[in-house]
Amino acid sequence: MKVKNHICIICSTITIMLALLGIMGYFPGLEILGSFKKGFIPMAPATAFAFILLGGVLLSIDKVKPSKIKWLFSLSAVLFVMLFGILDVLGYSSGLDLNFEEALIPVAGTMNGIPVGRMSPVAGIIFFLSGFSILVLLLAKDNPNKNEEFRFLSGVLNLTVFLIAFVFCLAYFLGSPLLYASKSAIPMALTTALGFIFLGLAVFGYNQNSFPLKIVTGDTMRGYLLRYILPLAVFSVLLGGLTAQYSFQGSKINPAILSAASILLVIIATGIVANFISRHLGSVIDGQKAAIKKSEQALIKSEKKFRILFETMVQGVVYQNASGEIIDANPAAERILGLSLDQMKGRTSIDPRWKSVDQEKNELPGEKHPPMVALNTARPVENFIQGIYNPQKKKYVWIIVNSIPQFKKGENMPYRVFSTFLDITGRKNAEDELKEFKENLEQQVNEKTRLLNERIADLESFHEATIERELRMEELRKENERLKKGNNDA
Questions:
Q1: Global pTM?
Q2: Most exposed of 45, 160, 367, 403 (fewest Cβ within 10 Å)?
Q3: Of 350, 333, 355, 354, which Cα lies nearest the Cα of 342?
Q4: Is 382 helix (H, G, I), strand (E, B) or coil?
Q5: 3-class DSSP state for residue 174?
Q6: Could you give the CA distance from residue 138 to residue 65 in angstroms, rounded to a whole number?
Q7: How confident is the model at residue 44 (pLDDT cuts 50, 70, 90)?
Q8: Do residues 145 and 158 make contact, with C-beta atoms less than 8 angstroms apart?
């Protein structure tokens, strides 16, 4: 299971547990579970139910795609929470019970004239935003093409929820809960604010690779520095605020001395943390520099080996850009083609000076040259045989070509192509000579066969004539004997 799923599951579970504690707080003797401190307003039952629904959706968010029924159930639960939250806000503004909370759940008393057990309108707004954030994540799973845009929107909404809940929690911890002085507005409970904190962390855990965590968790130097600087800044502010808050309460010491002491304490604590971070960052940066230097040395060594191979290999190598213009070639290519690199640079396959022919020695158009076919089709061309006129040798040389297109990341069409080819003129000439020899031999065999057939036909004619003559002689002999016998009888 991925780390982000662990965070999402743990924080969603804590959110549901806080909701269950909020419900248990309405049982006699367990009131403290719903507020965490006497005098604080408890979590409303409707709020707890909404937390359970959203937490359950987040627990199953990676499992809702395979089953359409589960996906629809999760979608319905999120939409219900959003609707309930916005109706609570509209009902509070108009004085009407639009979400039927008063009809379904009885009021559990009052606190400073404010009804206990009712969802705060602030909580209603945050539930709408939280539900919207989770709804966008569900839609992202169902629309892979818009995944990035949906996740960014979810991150923005969830960050808003988290910051609002954080402010309410901070006010509780500093001893000045928000909206408690109001006689009409229902404050948001500490347990509710904590529930939103963990709900937001659950969404962040699932949406880790998007805004805003992507800024901090990325592999860039900015992300690496922010992972340390942001906690340090938050730690400094919180430490200073808490120190000032609790040091001034009930103290008879000069406030200036207390302020100076608190500032000094913050400076010392911040200095210790900053020293630790700087040492750690320094070691990491030094390690990265060493790794980069090692990689550069390995790259130089690899490039040197490649250059030696490029310059000494028997096969010719030619690089052409997306327009088909030659941009580089090795010495073997210069030797095989009979042109220097300077003469080849800028020349395309369309150039008629190549005088290229196919295996049958028919003219081969430039657009049918292997590198141009590879560029146009974005597919390799392998073992293509063609003839190229070599101006130095003043004759054709035969080559077998392999052209491989190369792509930039995320692009479908090649930005260049490289071709490797081998001079097979000797083999080609031998094949042509063998072909010619076979053709001549076949002609001779055909001629001899024709003469032999004629001789056989003559012999057959002679044989037939001889047999016919012997048969005729036999008939004459028999006729002669018959005549002789007739004379003797007479």
A1: 0.56
A2: 367
A3: 333
A4: strand
A5: coil
A6: 9
A7: very high
A8: no
CA-based nearest residue to 141, from 81, 58, 51: 58
Instruction: Mention every residue, 6+ apart, whose C-beta is less than 8 A from residue 139.
Output: 146, 150
What is the rounded distance in angstroms from the CA atom of residue 270 to the CA atom of residue 289?
27
Report whether 400 contacts 422 (CB < 8 A).
Answer: yes
Beta strands in 279-436 (DSSP E): 316-321, 326-329, 381-390, 395-406, 416-423
- CA dist., res. 9 & res. 186, Å (int): 31
| pLDDT single digits (tens) 243-262 | 666 555 555 555 555 556 66
3-state secondary structure 347-365: CCCCCHHHCCECCCCCECC
Helix H or strand E encompassing 418: strand 416-423
Q: How remote is the C-alpha of 253 from its chain's centroid?
A: 61
Cβ atoms of 373 and 403 closer than 8 Å:
yes
**Cross-strand pairs, 388:** 397
Interatomic CA distance for residues 320 and 327, integer angstroms: 5
**Residue 219: both structure tokens together:** 């592999």
**Token representation of residue 31:** 């009131």
Identify whether the C-beta of residue 77 lies closer than 8 Å to the C-beta of residue 31: no
Which of 129-133, 218-222, 449-453 ranks highest by mean pLDDT?
A: 129-133
Residue 201 confidence (pLDDT): 92
Region of poorest pLDDT, from 3-12, 277-286, 433-442:
277-286
Q: Which of 125, 146, 123 is nearest to 136 (CA)?
A: 146
Q: Identify which of 93, 97, 118 has the alpha carbon closest to the alpha carbon of residue 26.
A: 118
Single-letter amino acid, residue 373: V
Band (pLDDT 50/70/90 cuts) for residue 203 is very high
What pLDDT sits at residue 245? 60
Where does residue 327 rank: exposed (0-12), middle (13-18), buried (19+ CB within 10 A)? middle
Q: Which of 15-29, 170-184, 418-432 is the most confident on average?
A: 15-29
111 phi and psi, to 5 degrees?
A: -140, 115
Dihedral over alpha carbons 176, 180, 181, 184 (to 10 degrees): 160
Helices 221-247, 255-312: axis angle to 10 degrees equals 170
Please give the average per-residue pLDDT across 79-90, as a whole number.
93
**Does residue 97 contact residue 173 with C-beta atoms inside 8 Å?**
no
Cα 388 to chain centroid distance, Å, stands at 43
- For residues 344 and 349, give the distance between their C-alpha atoms in angstroms, rounded to a whole number: 10
For the ranges 103-117, 307-321, 426-440, 475-489, the one whose mean pLDDT is highest: 307-321
